[in-house]
Design a protein that fits this description.
The complex is a heterotrimer.
Chain A: H1 12-39, H2 43-50, H3 53-86, H4 92-98, H5 101-104, H6 107-117, H7 123-130, H8 139-163, H9 167-175, H10 180-208, H11 214-217, H12 228-237, H13 241-272
Chain B: H1 18-25, H2 38-67, H3 72-80, H4 83-116, H5 122-134, H6 137-148, H7 153-160, H8 169-195, H9 198-205, H10 210-238, H11 242-247, H12 258-267, H13 273-298, H14 306-309
Helix pairs in contact in B: 2-13, 4-8, 4-10, 5-8, 6-8, 8-10, 9-10, 10-13, 12-13
Chain C: H1 2-25, E1 37-42, H2 47-59, H3 62-66, E2 70-75, H4 78-86, E3 93-96, H5 99-107, E4 126-127, E5 130-135, H6 145-150, E6 155-158, H7 164-180, H8 183-195, E7 200-201, H9 204-213, E8 219-223, H10 224-234, E9 238-241, E10 245-247, E11 252-255, H11 257-263, H12 266-275, H13 279-287, E12 291-292, H14 295-300, E13 309-311, H15 313-316, H16 320-328, H17 333-342
Classes of the chains: A mainly alpha, B mainly alpha, C alpha/beta.
Chain lengths: 273, 313, 344
């Protein structure tokens, strides 16, 4: 269909006008303000803020925590998706429904529940404390809470793919003498790999930008465990707008980069597969 | 590739008689070759429950037990007797629906535009729509603070004209709108694509104008998908924390939404009120899940995966 | 083509009307400004005292005389509050516990730089001291600032980049160590102190939560009002320790003129600022463990407020600008201490 051909269905003009204005007002305007603000200083100052040692350590913390959580989520998510799709067991429906809870729950609630639960007056904190394990404000607990907030991403991305997987391939593999493990590795995995990667990236991106839960659970030590979003808020509270916006832009570019990566990977997959 | 037993005869077509072959040396029944041994199955199921309970179940259980630890009446009292908490509930129930409403109108517009027409710039619009998902909510709040702060001319004019924006509800609504922007659109796009324009084309060729076509043909077709998207958007809007925290003025009892109020109650040692309000939020989340499940099961609506939601390039 | 343009414009207009309309509609739920209302933007741990003051005003006949105003409070870390007010938070009154934050507002023309001269008697309505809170029985035998260094304790204090009290604590600590040694040794001591902090909460109040509720750390650096509150709530599990010297914490408080002018509350704010020096208000201050200015009230409660060797900014760096330059700006002493401390 010629792209510039006259539109048959009514409503082109109106929807175009509405959509462009909405996006312009809501997306371009705020982001543009950020860019404008950050770049209105001289480039030297901008780079100095963006790559300030405190910011660099914050980027690294965000990256490593989100990455670990996303990797763990991928394995756990795959497991759960598999179990939900392939097996029938008591409570399956319940598990399937509740998986989406982290989508709907505010991150601040997740944060403070986790931090209290693992503190000395919480169930798990008390139990672990008796065995000499104190998890409050540790890196481990932060990754754990990121697991919570990113939990549904991998499961929900892999589930539909698993459901629609062609059984014939597995049967063929079995007939040809492969055991289940081999079948899984060579037949099933390649088919769900794109979904796994997408789910991983979604969980990763979410973890990068996470604030509400981290601020309760982590120790937020500058240069040590402070993450990107916490740094940005802290800079804002210190009245250091330039530093805040510089760090924000770096984090934005990282997320955009990830988005671009997913898109290109998927495009490549689509043209190959 | 190994040749099959006893099939070298007479150059038969290499397509094996699957059942026979399977019967001869593969596991006894055809069904079994797609399942694991019971031992593995049980292990996997137990592992799945372990992670599910450990990560999701126990914290939620803890939340509810703490909230009700002092009894049901105190639970309700701690929420409804506190003026500021009530105000936060009212605030959330104003901001979220407004954001959802606007994003619904936008979602309908954008989904229609992107699925029914081809035009230069389509991909750009799609990218812009996906953008909010890649932006941390903290950055969203920061953008609004910069946009309307005292340094910019936008802020200056808002001040001059006496229009309240920052530290007040409009900025909170705008932040929530930004964060939940893509949800409804992405829900509607696969639905509209699947349905296809045939019915609408037929309607227009029979003389229906835009509104009639939309109301009589399009809307009924996408109703369930729209409902689903609205549900998700609403849940997300209610639970939004970071962006609202950055733009609100932290004025106790005035610009605190429920998620912010929970934080403040927690900081002010007001147990079990903090857990109580948090469990109220959790109940609302469960309500959303319930509605989601109902739509999926009773109305047979399949939520399309993210990948499919991206339109073919 | 023209039809398209027209319909595009129609769509755009519809969008703008809808969005702007919705944003305005949301104001329905915003803080009501129907009747007379005063917003007091203050630092984090002032919630209780301000609420008590406002309650007292509302309960007394003064309220009628003032026209029955409604009071609202906003609390945030000192620096954060300064930014909020600068960005247009409609506060009629502001009070901050860290002078440089106040000067930021003064430079923006929002408040008077010489706030003391605008107040009755030319002095702040109260002052306060830094104190330490320890666990029951004081197991590490903490008595003064140097014990924080010598004893194997974990110290809880707020983030000195955001909290006013934390920055004052840094100054106190540094000065106490300087008097015991030299500026160079004080620098090193500061770094050692930061190494002992397991978690930096953004505000005083979250710090208290961390120490008192979550049970983290052995010693908390805080100030009198907060410490008393904590100790009382802990029912015996916490104790208050007074170091010999402390920075004399005085709040910068005053009217935010542009806001008061536009809201027509100038007279009301002036009355408010006068009222807080009256005996009832001062009595409430003492009740909440702020050291009142009023000598009579102070004498009544003097057992609560033992004398302290006061440190002022003049002792440390001459004036606030120099102090900010040395300690608090990016790359200053605090920043370096945090970085060194992170290199464990």
């Amino acid at each position: 269909m010629n792209r510039l051909a006259p539109k048959v269905l009514p409503g082109f003009g109106i929807t175009l006008g509405f959509t462009l204005t909405y996006l312009g007002f809501l997306v371009l305007l705020p982001l543009g303000a950020l860019l404008f603000q950050a770049l209105s200083n001289n480039p030297f100052d901008f780079f100095r803020s963006a790559f300030h040692p405190r910011a660099l350590s914050a980027y690294w913390n965000s990256f490593s925590m989100a990455f670990s959580a996303a990797v763990l989520n991928t394995f756990i998510g795959l497991l759960i998706a598999w179990v939900l799709v392939r097996y029938r067991f008591f409570g399956r429906r319940f598990m399937d429904a509740v998986i989406d809870l982290p989508f709907a729950l505010p991150t601040s609630v997740a944060g403070f529940v986790y931090s209290t639960l693992y503190s000395e007056r919480g169930w798990l904190g008390e139990f672990l404390g008796q065995n000499g394990i104190h998890l409050t404000h540790t890196w481990f607990l932060t990754v754990l809470v990121l697991l919570f907030t990113g939990f549904p991403f991998v499961v929900r991305t892999v589930q539909p793919v698993l459901e629609e997987l062609d059984g014939d391939l597995e049967e063929a593999a079995a007939i040809l003498g492969a055991n289940r493990f081999q079948t899984f590795i060579h037949v099933i995995m390649p088919s769900i790999l794109p979904a796994l990667i997408t789910g991983f990236s979604l969980a990763f991106a979410r973890g990068l930008g996470e604030y509400g839960s981290i601020v309760f659970v982590s120790s937020n030590l500058p240069y040590r465990s402070e993450t990107g979003p916490v740094l940005i808020v802290s800079r804002l509270e210190e009245n250091a707008i330039n530093d805040a916006s510089a760090a924000a832009i770096v984090m934005l570019m990282a997320s955009f980069g990830m988005l671009l990566l997913i898109n290109t990977l998927q495009k490549r997959r689509q043209s190959n597969g | 590739m190994d040749s099959f037993n006893g099939d070298k005869v007479a150059g038969l077509s290499p397509v094996p008689n699957v059942a026979a072959e399977a019967a001869s040396f593969a596991p006894p029944s055809l069904r079994d070759c797609r399942t694991e041994s019971p031992f593995i199955q049980y292990t996997l199921i137990i592992l799945a429950w372990f992670f599910f309970l450990g990560i999701l179940g126990i914290p939620i259980l803890y939340l509810f037990t703490q909230a009700f630890s002092v009894g049901i009446s105190l639970f309700f009292q701690s929420i409804f007797a506190d003026k500021d908490t009530l105000n936060s509930i009212f605030l959330t129930l104003t901001i979220a629906p407004l954001a959802v409403l606007l994003n619904t109108v936008f979602g309908l517009n954008a989904a229609w535009l992107l699925t029914r027409y081809r035009f230069p710039g389509r991909t750009l619009i799609l990218t812009l729509i996906d953008l909010p998902f890649a932006v941390s909510p903290v950055v969203t709040g920061l953008c609004l603070v910069i946009l309307a702060g005292s340094r910019t001319w936008v802020g200056y004019w808002l001040d001059r004209l006496g229009i309240p924006f920052l530290n007040n509800t409009p900025s909170m609504v705008m932040g929530t709108m930004f964060v939940t922007l893509p949800i409804i659109v992405r829900e509607l796009i696969p639905v509209l694509e699947e349905i296809g324009p045939e019915q609408e084309l037929a309607a227009t060729s029979l003389g229906a104008n835009g509104t009639q076509m939309f109301l009589r043909i399009t809307l009924p077709n996408i109703a369930i998908g729209l409902l689903y998207g609205v549900l998700l958007c609403n849940a997300r809007a209610i639970g939004e924390f970071a962006s609202v925290a950055v733009v609100s003025g932290r004025i106790a009892g005035a610009t605190e939404t429920m998620p912010l109020r929970v934080e403040r109650l927690f900081q002010e040692y007001k147990s079990p009120a903090d857990f109580a309000l948090a469990s109220l939020l959790a109940l609302m989340a469960f309500g959303t899940l319930l509605a989601k499940g109902l739509i999926e099961n009773r109305l047979n609506y399949r939520h399309h995966s993210v990948k499919k939601g991206k339109m073919g390039q | 083509m023209n039809d398209y343009l027209i319909s595009i414009c129609k769509g755009a207009m519809a969008c703008l009307v809808l969005v702007v309309g919705a944003l305005f509609l949301s104001l329905v739920a915003s803080p009501r400004r129907g009747s007379l209302e005063l917003l007091h933007a203050s630092f984090d741990t002032s919630r209780e005292i301000l609420a008590a003051w406002h309650q007292e005003i509302t309960d007394s006949p003064v309220s009628n005389a003032w026209g029955n105003p409604n009071f609202r409070i906003s609390n945030a870390g000192s620096a954060a509050q300064a930014r909020a007010v600068r960005d247009g938070l409609p506060a009629d009154i502001a009070s901050l516990n860290f002078e440089p934050d106040w000067q930021i507002l003064a430079k923006a023309g929002l408040v008077a730089s010489d706030w003391r001269s605008r107040l009755p008697g030319g002095k702040a309505p109260w002052h306060s001291s830094l104190v330490l809170v320890v666990r029951k029985g004081n197991p590490h035998d903490i008595r003064d600032w140097e014990d924080l260094l010598t004893k194997p304790v974990k110290v809880i204090m707020p983030n000195p980049k955001t909290s006013g009290v934390a920055r004052l604590a840094v100054l106190s600590f540094w000065e106490a160590r300087r008097r015991a040694g030299s500026p160079a040794s004080a620098d090193i001591d500061l770094i050692s102190l930061c190494k002992k902090v397991p978690v930096f909460d953004p505000s005083m109040r979250t710090c208290t939560t961390t120490f008192a509720q979550k049970g983290i750390g052995d010693v908390q650096i805080t100030w009198e009002p907060e410490a008393w509150l904590e100790v009382e709530e802990s029912a015996g599990k916490l104790e208050l320790i007074r170091p010999k010297s402390s920075f004399r914490i005085e709040p910068a408080i005053g009217m935010v003129e542009p806001v008061a002018k536009s809201k027509g509350t100038i007279l009301l704010v002036q009355k408010y600022l006068e009222w807080i020096y009256n005996p009832p208000a001062q009595e409430i201050l003492a009740k909440y463990h702020f050291r009142p200015l009023d000598k009579n009230v102070a004498k009544l409660h003097q057992d609560q407020f033992p004398p302290v060797d006061w440190i002022t900014i003049q002792d440390i760096a001459g004036d606030w600008d120099k102090a900010v330059e040395i300690f608090f700006k990016d790359g200053g002493l605090v920043d370096r201490a945090l970085r060194e401390a992170a290199k464990r």
